[in-house]
Amino acid sequence: MINVNIGTVLVHLVMFLAMVAALNALLFKPLLRVMDERENRVSGNRSAAEAANRDLEAMKSSYLEKLELTRKQANQERDALRKAAEAEEDKIVRSAREWAGNMVSDLRERIAAEYQGARDQLAASSQDMGRQIAARILGRSI
User: Fold this and answer.
1) What is the pLDDT of residues 51-110, one digit of tens each?
2) Can you spell out the DSSP letters for 41-103?
3) The pTM is what?
4) How many CB atoms lie within 10 A of CB 4?
């Protein structure tokens, strides 16, 4: 049969408990404390990173909204400026056409007046010229 020496078992039990107490105090508790601190730091950093990410997304969304609004306003202003420029261009073209029409009308009137003046002058001088030619041909004055 097996002989169990109670004294040896007690000595081993006391040594085991002393070793557990020593390892607990010197190794496990400091290791668990360091691991807990690390976990707290990591979770704090993770929370801070998530908060920063949420803030960044909010800023990005706000920026994109403002950018879109600015684009719309710029497009509206560009369209308004283009329409104003087209209206000004139409006004200038109408004015130029009116001026050109008036100029052409005035020139036609002047040309007609000069034509009529030249015609009258030619009619008057043609009679004189006819008399002079006839006088030369006939050799006497008419």
Assistant:
1) 999 999 999 999 999 999 999 999 999 999 999 999 999 999 999 999 999 999 999 999
2) HHHHHHHHHHHHHHHHHHHHHHHHHHHHHHHHHHHHHHHHHHHHHHHHHHHHHHHHHHHHHHH
3) 0.46
4) 8
